[in-house]
Amino acid sequence: MKFCILIFLMLTKTYSIWAQVNPSFDEGNNAYMHQDFTTAIKSYQACLSQGESSSLRFNLGNAYFQNGNIGPAILEYERALQIDPRNKGILTNLEYVRKKSGLAKEKSTFGDTLLQLLTIDTWVWITSFAFWTLIAALLFYKLLRHRFFFYFPASLILCLGTIPLLVAHKHANDAIIIKKETPLLTSPAPTSEVTSSIEEGSRVSVKTEYNGFFFAHLSKNKEGWIQKNNLGFIREKGQ
């Protein structure tokens, strides 16, 4: 019930904004309300050519989930969080879908927690501001009476701001498995040996690409080659 309520609130909240600029959003909402989730997905995808928002990604994720596409749903929720990392509706639905699908809860570090507070662009702005404040304080060292009140806050913000940026860089090539029972291969070839299968909706870290395959890391002792069309990057290439 909670999942359905969140869907309704997000649909009604964003209806007037997107419907004015893109009729496909209106069509997507109408299709969703009539439980025609395939049409809703196509309509929301058409909206993406005009730009994206956390609400659009969220609605697309909801449509995928209702259509039984767990991997794409989780992928769209993750993409929505890149735009609005503190959105409770997105976080709640993502947790709900992951739990319902039997996926293990992802471990969160201190850096991950900081990254979830603000967008990457905001962290870049804050860190840059702290850096140049520190530089200015050093340049005008002799003119500052209370130097500590400039150095300490700027240094602290600079250090804290660097942590989520490093975490973001570490997760820059994270992707979500979007196909059911995706095979993990020993080499980048369709006929290579299958070592195991990966659950739809699982997060992987892509290391390299070769001949239509990605070499991905899943856990400490689990890595291998995955066909390119079996996953989607959380941060789409070119962003």
Describe the structure.
The protein is built from 9 helices and 7 strands, in the order αααααααααβββββββ. It has helices spanning 2-21, 23-33, 37-47, 54-66, 70-83, 88-100, 110-117, 120-139, 148-170; strands at 174-177, 182-185, 194-198, 203-210, 213-219, 222-227, 231-233. The chain has a 5-stranded antiparallel sheet with strand order 6-5-4-1-7. It has a two-stranded antiparallel sheet with strand order 2-3. The longest helix has 23 residues, at 148-170. Residues 12-16 have low confidence and may be disordered.
CATH class assignment of the largest domain: Mainly Alpha
Cα separation of the termini: 35 Å
Largest sheet: 5 strands, antiparallel
Unreliable runs, pLDDT <50, ≥5 residues? 12-16
Shape: globular
Q: Architecture of the largest domain, CATH level 2?
A: Alpha Horseshoe
Helix content: 55-70%
Radius of gyration: 21 Å
- How many domains make up the coordinates? 3
Overall number of strands: 7
Rounded average pLDDT: 82
What is the third-level CATH name, the topology of the largest domain? Serine Threonine Protein Phosphatase 5, Tetratricopeptide repeat
Task: List its salient traits.
239 residues, alpha+beta, Serine Threonine Protein Phosphatase 5, Tetratricopeptide repeat, SH3 type barrels, 3 domains, five-stranded antiparallel sheet, 9 helices, 15% strand
Secondary structure layout:
Layout: H1 2-21, H2 23-33, H3 37-47, H4 54-66, H5 70-83, H6 88-100, H7 110-117, H8 120-139, H9 148-170, E1 174-177, E2 182-185, E3 194-198, E4 203-210, E5 213-219, E6 222-227, E7 231-233
Antiparallel strand pairs: 1-4, 1-7, 2-3, 4-5, 5-6
Helix pairs in contact: 1-2, 1-4, 1-6, 2-3, 3-4, 4-5, 5-6, 7-9, 8-9
